């Protein structure tokens, strides 16, 4: 039986070109047995007619806050109480702004204020609108209130430009809804993690970096989300697309990554440091491009903060998982790192091996914790991530139980 059988989902459609995808999403949810009611804003009706959604769902589409006919059948408070999940897809920048400021000037925003059901949004807008500071601040407000953000995806946009802002494809949104209604091993657990590399500037065009692609970290974020975790990913530059259903914070430098982590770690139950953070940065950054007419250029490097060690040393620190990329004596170096930093679990791999490591789609890991070890053999990074999440979940819940027993 589908996990969506008889689940009550309120689908909000706002005024973006991606509104046509909402019809595909509606059809997929209905096919899985969900009960869906559709609410459309005035702007949404400029892109897709209510008749489309009515024909697909078999139910009247709700459009007006004070429509006497709709009020007699199911008023806006009853509709808000009916829903087990409110999903707004697409969610425009304007809708996000209104929801963040608590406005209730149409049926959809009123329902969002009146409901006690979880609210999820699937943003869709031009990439510059998405990256605009106002939109990002509105997103921060919504996330702090428990609103879940699925997306956006990156790619070609209706305006002809390319970047983050596309609504997540209906099939992937349907998967997210299914995961929402499936209680995973980490359901409700808040995970903060880092991934990717960092770039430490030398001058306006050059930087010190490393070969980390972000593939392992992003696969892990996806696997965590599938187990019900609320994932916030602080990411350096990567070569992979972000998973659906997580909150991603983009940074470049190690200090920026540290600041974003410290700002959020108090709300985390688990912290996972996957990012290949640069150990050093130039002590001075040239204001202009360094010309190549010199035969010798000397860089003075200073040590970057150790984000993982700092988090693990905090009072009331979350369950801490670290990664160790080594070229030799993997187990000895990884165990020394685990003990020195006070980590609950460390995952180590040999990056100089013929298989796995940076940029590869496969990897193998050695897991070490207090009194235990396990080898996860070479496999795809996604499959590896799923197994690693199982071990993290086991160790995390065991540590919580141990804490309860000692109180």
Which short descriptors sum up this protein?
407 residues; alpha/beta; Rossmann fold; 8-stranded mixed β-sheet; 5-stranded parallel β-sheet; 14 helices; 24% strand; globular; Coenzyme A biosynthesis bifunctional protein CoaBC
CATH superfamily annotation of the largest domain = CoaB-like
Distance linking N and C termini: 41 Å
Apparent shape? globular
- Contiguous low-pLDDT stretches (5 residues minimum) are none
CATH topology of the largest domain: Rossmann fold
- Provide the residue-averaged pLDDT: 88
* Largest sheet strand order: 12-11-8-13-16-17-18-19
CATH class of the largest domain: Alpha Beta
Largest sheet: 8 strands, mixed
- The structural domain count equals 2
Radius of gyration, whole Å: 24 Å
What structural category arises from helix and sheet content? alpha/beta
Tally of DSSP helical segments: 14
| CATH architecture descriptor name of the largest domain | 3-Layer(aba) Sandwich
Please bin the fraction of helical residues. Answer: 25-40%
- Beta-strand percentage? 15-25%
The counted number of beta strands is 19
Keywords: Decarboxylase, Flavoprotein, FMN, Ligase, Lyase, Magnesium, Metal-binding, Multifunctional enzyme
GO molecular function: FMN binding; metal ion binding; phosphopantothenate--cysteine ligase activity; phosphopantothenoylcysteine decarboxylase activity
Domain DNA/pantothenate metabolism flavoprotein C-terminal: 186-394
Region (Phosphopantothenoylcysteine decarboxylase): 1-190
